[in-house]
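Bench notes, afternoon.
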Amino acid sequence: MATARFLSRLPGRLGLRGCLLARGGSARLPTAALWALSGPGWDHGPPRPAGPRQRPTRAFSAAALVRAAPGPLQPYLRLMRLDKPIGTWLLYLPCTWSIALAAEPGCWPAWDMLLLFGTGALLMRGAGCTINDMWDREYDKKVTRTASRPLAAGEISSFQSLVFLGGQLSLALCVLLCLNYYSIALGAASLSLVVTYPLMKRITYWPQLFLGLAFNWGALLGWSAVQGSCNWSVCLPLYFSGVLWTLIYDTIYAHQDRRDDLAIGVKSTALKFNENTKLWLSGFSTMMLLGLTVTGINCDQTFPYYAAVMAVGFHLAQQMILTYSMFHHIHTRRANHHHHHHHVRSSQGLPF
């Protein structure tokens, strides 16, 4: 009895378990209580449907910073997706791969280049999102996920977004002008992809391919910024791998909008692949790993690089297993969120 009383008074997480033991075990416990004993999250009860109130809040998250900004500034910060930084990481990572691979053997990547490209990725991702929302304003109003975007919701006008775009591109140009002439020309060439990508979903089922071509340009630019020009035997397979990576994660992402896309006539690889999505993504994953391996061979990488490639391959295999739930909206969102964050962490080890 003394032990039971002691357990029942334990604070925090052990309180529930102590109470249950004091009452003679779990033979007659309801489902919620049984779930409570099953793992370290027992204080939170059985799993509930995802919703805005159930999501954990982070005091220093990007979304919290945007919400804390002055009211008139918030629509512009959301227009450049500052509250959703994962896209900036996806644009920045190919740059870091290339910068690190271009470093001299045994040396750390150039930190000034990493900082410069990080700033450029933030600005160009914001500019790309602004261009995308300007093109898609009317489409976004008809899609549940995008109807609250600042342009679609009428929080800012087209003229205001155009002026804001000019400011972002001007700052990005300042970053680009810090590089060598070869890299300035190479970086400027990517602007055509940034501008035309939003149109691709209207004319082809492969808009994710064009997104990959734009989003992985840093795989070329990072090397040229460090070395003065591109070593195409390294840069091309790295760029190819990055494009395939984008095809994988953005096809998963596109599945959550399949119904809306069909209704408004927008195309995507999710609609193109349909029930064969898992087969297509498995093929892309295999080719991506092959491209990364060729990249490593052509720039004389050692075991740590190939270990990182194996880690990425393991994660991709996990994602292929998870695609059985691809056609269920809530599972697609969950798989896509997991894919983005986990693959970002896995990919950070590639050049090191």
